[in-house]
Amino acid sequence: MGLIRKRLRTPELKMIFLVGGGESKTNLVYGYLNSRVSKPLLNAFVEKISCIPELEILETSYVEELVEDNIYSPFPQVRFTERPDVVVAGLLEGKIVVMVDGTGTMMLCPGLFIELFQSSEDYYQRTVLSSLIRLLRIFAFFIALLLPSMYIALTTFHPELIPTRENIVRKSNFIRRYKGVIRELIYRSYEHSKTSIT
């Protein structure tokens, strides 16, 4: 909490302390920027966590179960991080942060699907470069999602569309010319898939 306050030296940063119930009596804090947070979002969040004084809260994921809108959604509805700079960026975007005593993981609410393509290093690079890298991540996501199913569909229902050995030899000049570009795209997408897990 001190690292967040050190980066956001404004009276608009509000931190509300709660104590979990049961035997653990775990302390937790939720915070927001009063000037940035959506009031309906804040009211809905406060209503959802109003039962915390009666529950055992041991970790941040216990709070996640309370604030989820749809428990059957395959997509995350909150975002977890251990980095205070990511939390500060989230607060500046109007999000709510939840911290539980004894855990280093902080939870940002609400979490958006497009944030899964963000990396914490995006905030430290130029806008054009980080936007291009994010577009590359989205492109790699769709390739990973669609390419295997397209290959199975082609091999199962239209095997005549798979290139023969003669066609591959003819097109090998194209591949040789752009091999460096293709290799760089694959390397960058692999590199950013490793670093975006924060």
Descriptive report:
- By secondary structure, the protein is an alpha+beta fold.
- Helices cover 47% and strands 13% of the residues.
- It is built from 7 helices and 5 strands.
- The protein has helices spanning 2-7, 39-48, 60-67, 84-92, 127-157, 165-177, 179-195; strands at 13-19, 27-33, 79-81, 96-100, 106-109.
- A hairpin with a 5-residue loop joins strand 4 (96-100) and strand 5.
- 15% of the residues are buried.
Which structural class fits the helix and strand makeup?
Answer: alpha+beta
Termini separation comes to: 19 Å
Low-confidence stretches: none
The run of helices and strands is: HEEHHEHEEHHH
- Largest beta sheet: what is the strand line-up? 1-2-4-5-3
How would you describe the shape?
elongated
Radius of gyration: 23 Å
Count, helices: 7
Strand content: 5-15%
Instruction: Give the helix proportion (percent range).
Output: 40-55%
Average pLDDT reading = 84
Largest sheet: 5 strands, antiparallel
Number of E strands: 5
How would you summarize the topology of this molecule?
Blueprint lengths: L1 H6 L5 E7 L7 E7 L5 H10 L11 H8 L11 E3 L2 H9 L3 E5 L5 E4 L17 H31 L7 H13 L1 H17 L3
Antiparallel strand pairs: 1-2, 2-4, 3-5, 4-5
